[in-house]
Amino acid sequence: MDKTHIGQKVVLSAVAGMILIPGSALDVSAAEKTEEQPFIQAAGIESVLEKCYETEVKDNINLYLVPTEEGEYLNMAFSDTDDYTYIRSAPDENSGWVGKLYQDCAAQVLEYLDGWTKIKSGSAEGYVPSDTLITGETAAERAKEYENHTVTVTAYSLNVRNSQGTQAEILTQIGQGETYEVTGEPVDGWYPVQVGDMDGWVSGSYVTEETSYSYGETKEEEEARVAEETRRAEATEAAATQTAGSSAEGQAVVDYACQFIGNPYVWGGTSLTNGADCSGFVQSVYAHFGISLPRTTYEMVNAGYAVSYEEALPGDLILYDGHVGLYMGNGTIVNAMNEADGIGICSATYTNIIAVRRVL
């Protein structure tokens, strides 16, 4: 991945107010691009530098940097902590904390103090111990370690393959506007990405790449995030409990339906022993459990609620164009097939699936 390496230059300007007195805030903004740079006599620069060292502000010299072409000053710092460090409201261990700076975060340096540094990281602004930060030239050298690389899909649908090239096997597809983490260096215009638990490759012709940093969060942001994570965990647990119940009930439906394997298929019939057609078979099986279903496949397509085939559980209705069966699990259905085969078992994907409906 190509990186832009930015050389550091010291720029000192009394007019711009960029000389930082210890304990004072640094207020810098991106410089406007001009055709000509202001001329500063060398003797003047030496005099200012000498004054800086005399007043013991040499630790702040790295902040006086030329902006890049994008107009950003190189006053970045990176966290140097195992887990996180508190961002405090004042340069004092006993002051309240207003946010957290995590181990992979970047920050903007606002002020250097004795043993403390004032930073802004995301929406969090406050003070952290100076020894929890990587600053100056070391920060510039290690910036790549903190970069996050993502790609966003620009095509309506994009294949994720197991290797580079259009001849490689397709693992899955991802959609327009979706963003994924880049897990390594691109190869011949192909990006390695992680999609869920799957590692694959996507063509660089159909994505846009972005490099960014992670930032700290305020106390309020952390509280909101934890509350949302708790809500999702509870919803997942509830769904798992419901799924387990549905699976057990659905297995009972399948076990009952399998008792009638080998019985005849009769068009228009609803008898599990003397003969039934596909919808009559499903309707009669569920009637045994006190669940009323419509008579035809065209009506059953609206019964219960929809789930994907990947989420299908035993007992779910698998609907096709003019046919229906009961999902058994492991890619099979029990169904009233035809006059020649009667009630039996076949592949759930023997033809295109129109819908999967759960009625339990």
Short recap of the structure:
20% of the residues lie in helices and 31% in strands. The protein has helices at residues 42-54, 136-142, 219-257, 278-287, 297-300; strands at residues 76-79, 84-88, 97-102, 106-112, 116-121, 124-129, 133-134, 147-153, 157-161, 170-175, 179-182, 190-195, 198-203, 207-213, 217-218, 270-271, 275-276, 305-306, 317-320, 323-329, 332-338, 342-347, 355-358.
Structure description:
The two termini are 51 Å apart. Mean pLDDT is 82; it is low at 1-73. The longest helix is centred in the middle third of the chain and has 39 residues, at 219-257. The protein is α+β, with helices and mostly antiparallel strands and 360 residues long. It is built from five helices and 23 strands. The chain has a six-stranded antiparallel beta sheet with strand order 18-23-19-20-21-22. Strands 6-5-4-1-7 form a five-stranded antiparallel beta sheet. A five-stranded antiparallel beta sheet has the order 13-12-11-8-14, with no helix packed on it. 20% of the residues lie in helices and 31% in strands. It has three domains: 42-145, SH3 type barrels (Roll); 147-213, SH3 type barrels, CATH 2.30.30.40; 238-358, Alpha-Beta Complex (endopeptidase fold (from Nostoc punctiforme)), CATH 3.90.1720.10. It has helices at 42-54, 136-142, 219-257, 278-287, 297-300, and strands at 76-79, 84-88, 97-102, 106-112, 116-121, 124-129, 133-134, 147-153, 157-161, 170-175, 179-182, 190-195, 198-203, 207-213, 217-218, 270-271, 275-276, 305-306, 317-320, 323-329, 332-338, 342-347, 355-358.
